[in-house]
Design goal:
Elements (H helix, E strand, L loop, with lengths): L1 H15 L12 H11 L7 E5 L5 H8 L3 E6 L2 H10 L5 E5 L13 E4 L6 H15 L3 E6 L10 E3 L2 E6 L2
Parallel strand pairs: 1-2, 1-4, 2-3, 4-5
Antiparallel strand pairs: 5-7, 6-7
Bound molecules: S-adenosylmethionine.
């Protein structure tokens, strides 16, 4: 009986997220490493924000390049997993719904592995952030192009946009 409740609890935790954004599927390490080298060469001058950070795979890839990395994640299980796997002081993960968060002033690049339903709204959040902070930033999307916006660069399934502040 206890197993039933554990499985039911985990199913609910992973399932309820779908109402707020993309379900959990991690970006593959090899792909993100390539994107953060070729498409947007991330450096220690950058602060990457992953909106919907999953198990923190992208945050760790950013930290390996010396960048600060901040993740927002709705699923508490994934927040705990991220914290256990990401020991670098450059990585921080917050249990939060990113739609309700003001992204940090230092943000230089917003990353998302979102979904077709939300990608336009996510880009709009990047535009709001750039305009609020009055500075340009980059928006990298894995898997989904932003309808009506021309990417600065594209590499396989990654799209990079420059968002004017
Ligand atoms: C496709 S996964 C991508 C995970 C990670 N960014 C990666 O690329 O490996 C999307 C993640 O976003 C989270 N998520 C969805 N909607 C969210 C929201 N409104 N606020 C915070 N996290 C959200 C999900 O729980 C899931 O872990």
């Amino acid at each position: 009986m206890m197993w039933f409740w554990i499985v039911a609890g985990i199913t609910v935790l992973f399932g309820f997220v779908v109402a707020r954004g993309a379900p959990y599927v991690p970006t593959r390490r090899k792909l993100i490493d390539k994107a953060l080298t070729d498409l947007y060469p991330l450096s220690d001058k950058d602060v990457l924000v992953d909106i919907g950070s999953g198990d923190g795979m992208v945050l760790r890839a950013a930290a390996r390049r010396g960048a600060r990395a901040i993740g927002y994640e709705l699923n508490p299980v994934l927040v705990v997993v991220s914290k256990l796997l990401s020991r670098s002081s450059l990585v921080s993960v917050r249990l939060a719904d990113f739609w309700f968060v003001t992204l940090p002033l230092e943000t230089t690049i917003i990353y998302t592995f979102g979904d077709s339903r939300d990608i336009k709204k996510m880009y709009h959040k990047a535009e709001q952030t750039a305009s609020k902070h009055k500075k340009n930033l980059y928006f990298m999307s894995f898997g989904f192009a932003v309808p009506g916006k021309k990417p600065l660069r594209r590499d396989h399934s990654f799209y990079l946009y420059k968002v004017k502040g």
